[in-house]
Amino acid sequence: MQQLVRVSERFVYLPPYQETDRPVLAAISGDKYTLIIDAGNSADHAKQWLSQLGEKNIKGDWLVLTHWHWDHVFGLSEMNMPIICFTGTLDRVKEMQLLSWEDSALDERVREGSEIPFCADAIKKEFPEQRDIMIPTPDMTFTSKMSLNLGGVTCIIEHVGGDHSPDSSIIYIPVEKILFLGDCLYANMYAKNWCYTVEKVTNMIAKLEQYDTEIAFLSHAEQPMTREEYRAYLDLLSNSAELTERFKGDTGLVAEEMSAMLQRPLNELETETIQFFINGYMQ
Ligand SMILES: [Zn+2]
Q1: Which of 34, 35, 61, 127 could be joined to 131 by an S-S link, Cβ 3.0–4.6 Å?
Q2: For the chain, what is the mean pLDDT?
Q3: For residue 68, how far is its CA from the centre of ligand 1 (angstroms)?
Q4: Within 10 Å of residue 280's Cβ, how many Cβ atoms?
Q5: Which CATH architecture has domain 5-159?
């Protein structure tokens, strides 16, 4: 079972669990209020998190969603607190409320292309039997950016978009220099070939660059990124975008130039990232 990790006096998180695609959940506490980030992929996941928070005497007052994907919202029914999200996230949650999550319905959506096998399989694993999923409607929405004063700590919540999910929003805590990214740096997994697009990544990075970041959380990464690791990830994305454009989607030339820039052979993540940009360019 995943165990709560304390990063600072104010910030704690529950690491991800890859087997059933459970994302990182986090909580930031000010002198007056606590903000919970994401609801988890099931009532079980949410309960596990709430009970570990309870042991530390942490009680959530608000919850914010990073985006609409199932693994971030299916735990909402357990989260007895007001839910905040981007307007686009609210729209998608309302659509999800109408869906059935039984095997036959999931399989049908995979067949017609509105769901992907990766998610359908993880949902079946997370919910082997009972699948009575209830997703409450979020209570408060924002259209581009908002801030929350938790008492001595301010959180900035901003919609940044990107390829993974157009509604992706980040949470930044200035006093801690912690940036919670959700899934926003990942590729679009709903496309036929997983992809990044130059324009979406460039716009997203311009927004992310505003935030001076010491620790960055990606929802499905075992460990948070240091400043240097995060910088390297952003550089990989922006260099891949720039080279994809310059070499008009020629995989060989992009890889060759990237390898020359780094003065070493490319690793798996770099090769894969370039391929996703080429996939996006070819669409
Ligand atoms: Zn996602």
Answers
A1: 127
A2: 97
A3: 7
A4: 24
A5: 4-Layer Sandwich (3.60)
